[in-house]
Design brief:
It is built from twelve helices and 20 strands. It is an alpha/beta fold and 434 residues long. The protein folds into three domains: 209 residues, FAD/NAD(P)-binding domain (3-Layer(bba) Sandwich), CATH 3.50.50.60; 101 residues, no CATH class; 94 residues, Alpha-Beta Complex (Polyamine Oxidase, Chain A, domain 2). Strands 1, 2, 10, 11, 12, 13, 14 and 20 form an eight-stranded mixed β-sheet that branches. A seven-stranded mixed β-sheet has the order 8-7-16-17-18-15-19, sandwiched between helices. A three-stranded antiparallel β-sheet has the order 5-9-6. Helix 1 links the parallel strand 1 and strand 2. The longest helix has 19 residues. The chain is globular and about 65 Å long. The two termini are 17 Å apart. Bound molecules: flavin-adenine dinucleotide.
């Protein structure tokens, strides 16, 4: 590539959980020279954390799906990190009652109080049987209708679509994604967890792995602008105004950005570009409350259908994220993208969520501070038409050495677990390509 200043085997663009995981895995492997680019001033992407008055705040609620047995745990182990991910249980708030669903260990599902025995058996057998593309095409409401399910199963599938798929649109959410997640839970015997010390140490551990390697360089505040692939074979990038030679390029940011913001030379085929561009993201209202006095000893993640919400006193799982004697309470409520800018709606939903916390925990939160934000949760919400088989693959078709990873691609998992999983898969593809 003429004008290139330096050559790297791999350029990874985006230092969210996907890009950081890949850079860390490649650093541990030490076979390739790697350049990790991040357009923002700090790494972490949607997993970033901030400190406030002694609290360690996530960018919203952040359960580690599949706990230590998920993909993030796997990446951490490869990086020799001993961070413990403590399992968390799940409960459903229904009919003004908090009902246990899955405890810290899967076997506790047998004692759950949310589903009748027949519904539990139907749910389990459907999740085990629903393999193949077809189930991903079926919506939750379509599946419930077809199976003439009882109100108990309906409330659970709706609650899980809120908490796991980040949508309250059961008419569009893919039941196959829920079943696929539960197959993973059954195999690994754990549903979710939270890292001891919060997510800050996880990001630090990945960055440490990168920094330990003399073969990986990190550039913050540097945006990938262009991918140069003459003859459709990647030769380099332009980033921060500089041309850089590269053997392969991995875009670790939402697929829509690859379609809309990056100049690819030669351009992506129009049909493919439009497909990426049209993918819908999920939007949520997140509230973080620092509490002067703890409101609950409960360590479980609580799902509610009305209002659609997830609540979690996350410092019960990881006390280090709140100052001694205080508590960090997180709420999340999925909303339609159309309501994003509707201030009156957001205020109303915020009040509803706080009322819900009073009902769930039996007290009014003794609030030290409250942070409210509306943000993109998943870069691709698993609606039936954009569930796993319909999302873009990791290899960008028609190009040699161009890849896309993150929580919007066709790999198994959801959210951060999917982002890390795609990084593990991209490492394998790079080993075969370079
Ligand atoms: C409030 C909230 C709650 C959530 N809760 C959960 C949860 O409980 N469990 C869960 O598993 N997931 C959860 N998620 C989803 C999870 O955060 C995401 O799935 C995950 O962080 C996506 O990681 P990523 O690396 O794919 O993308 P991102 O985190 O978006 O990272 C992409 C990075 O690329 C950078 N970038 C973009 N364009 C460029 C460019 N051109 N050049 C260089 N850099 C670029 C961005 O600045 C960013 O840092 C939640 C998300 C939010 C916002």
């Amino acid at each position: 590539m003429p004008g290139g200043t330096k050559r790297y085997d791999v350029v990874v663009a985006g230092a969210g959980i996907a890009g950081l995981s890949l850079a860390a895995l490649l650093s541990v492997q030490a076979r390739y020279s790697v350049l990790l680019l991040e357009s923002g001033s700090a790494p972490g992407g949607r997993f970033r954390v901030t400190r406030r008055d002694g609290y360690l705040l996530d960018w919203g609620v952040h359960a580690c799906l599949l706990g230590s047995r998920g993909s993030i745990g796997r990446v951490l182990r490869r990086c020799d990190s001993d961070i413990r991910i403590r399992p968390a249980g799940m409960a459903v708030f229904r009919d003004e009652k908090l009902l246990p669903f899955v405890g810290e260990h899967l076997a506790t599902v047998l004692g759950q109080k949310v589903l009748g025995t027949a519904s539990l058996a139907r749910f389990g057998s459907a999740a085990l049987a629903s393999r193949g593309k077809r189930s991903f095409e079926i919506t939750i409401s379509g599946w419930l209708e077809r199976n003439r399910s009882g109100a108990d199963l309906e409330s659970v599938l709706k609650a899980l679509s809120i908490g796991l798929l980040a949508t309250d649109s059961y008419e569009r959410a893919s039941v196959g994604e829920l079943f696929a997640f539960f197959r993973q839970v059954m195999r690994r015997a754990v549903a979710a967890g939270y890292p001891e010390g919060g997510w800050g140490p996880v990001l630090d551990a990945l960055l440490e792995a990168v920094k330990r390697s003399s073969r990986c360089e990190v550039r913050l505040g540097t945006r990938l602008e262009r991918v140069i692939a003459p003859g459709s074979s990647v030769e380099g990038v332009t980033a921060g105004g500089e041309d850089i030679e590269a053997g392969a390029v991995v875009c670790a940011f939402p697929p829509q950005s690859l379609a809309d913001e990056i100049d690819i030379d030669p351009p992506l085929p129009e049909v493919y570009r439009k497909r990426l561009s049209a993918l819908e993201d999920s939007v949520g209202l997140c509230i973080e409350m620092g509490l002067n006095t703890p409101i609950t000893k409960d360590r479980r993640i609580v799902f509610s259908v009305g209002p659609p919400a997830l609540l979690w006193a996350v410092s019960n799982t990881s006390p280090a994220v709140a100052p001694p004697g205080k508590q960090l309470l997180q709420f999340f409520s999925p909303i339609s993208g159309k309501m994003r800018g509707d201030k009156a709606f957001i205020e109303r939903r915020t009040d509803e969520l706080i009322d819900l916390a009073v009902k769930v925990y039996g007290h009014t939160p003794d609030e030290e501070f409250k942070r409210v934000m509306v943000t993109t949760i998943g870069s691709v919400v698993p609606f039936a038409g954009q569930s796993r088989p319909y999302r873009p693959g990791i290899s960008v078709p028609g190009y040699d050495g161009l890849y896309i990873i993150g929580d919007g691609v066709n790999a198994s998992g959801l959210g951060g677990d999917l982002a890390a999983r795609s990084a593990i898969q991209a490492e394998r593809l790079l080993n075969g390509y370079l």
